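Risk register update: the risk of archive-format incompatibility is retired. Evidence:
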Amino acid sequence: MESPDVTFTLAYIVFTFCFVFTPNEFRSAGLTVQNLFSSWLGSEDIGFIQYHVKRSSLTLLVHSSIPLGYYAGMCIAAPEKNLPYINQVSAGWQAFLGLSLCLQLLSVGLIFYWSRCRWSNHPISRALQVHTGPQWAGWGAVATSINTEFRRIDKFASGAPGARVIVTDTWVMKVTTYYVHVAQQTDAHLTVTESRQHQMSPDSGTPTQTLTLRVASINQAVNPFDIRLMSTEYSELREKLHAPIRSAANVVIHQTINDRFLDTFRAQADLNQPYLLPSEMEVELCIGCMQVPAGAKLIRLCCEEGYDSGSECRQCFCRPMWCLSCLGRWFSSRQDQDRPETWLASSVPCPTCRSKFCILDVCLVR
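Archived output:
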């Protein structure tokens, strides 16, 4: 039978590994720095930058106390070693305790230095200072811009709390354990550098693909960083970015059937006859996403010369109310998911008036 100190050591190593790298089981149980100190950290939605400044500092403080916690635990797990009495323990344990205390004091001193001048010395604050200019007078103004855009519902967010990827209208960010990487969209260039195929996903039980993208900025003060996301999230990320994403020559991105259909749906709409908006008509936001102007109009074109006259399609008299992406998602959602080969030739009811239309009837608003 193993001695209590060996058992405690193995258990403490496992606990420390899980606490630092946080698997889903620990996160579900609330054993994270964010959950344990949520009352002090506040809300991420109210002040994103302030929240992560405090979270990263607190995480450093907690992680630096792990060796000291091991020594305190060994005082209880192995009382025969007389660890509470420093003058009676071996030189090895005295050195371990001394290093643990030095590490704890060093982290306290570092956090105190960061907190001076309203946390302007913190690494996250310094990362924001490189984006100051005519538009933002100081790092506080940059933080306010990020906080405001993070509260919007149209942001792109992916990943676990310790490795999140967040894209807003102006910023590309990656949240890590002790830091937040920030790049401005207008200055950033994204390149898909690697793709990994996984035979089984622990969440869905199906094969998945993970993409690695390199975020580089023309601002020399911003260090490049890598972000990772699932290939199924790639199209959503691409829609949120203002600039196109480049891909390395050897990288193949496997999109879902719905993503590939949306690309085909958009390509066919570009080929169809456009709808010229009357001057007295105003375009409102798409009622599906409420994010972009309604850019699609349904006009029965499949009955014209060269198309099947026996079509079930009917003329739709609705004004433009949907964007092309939402209309394409509606079209694919009404299809037989087991027979994607029939999608392009089928027809679905208009989401507003229920008049049937096909892909040839979708016109872009000009």
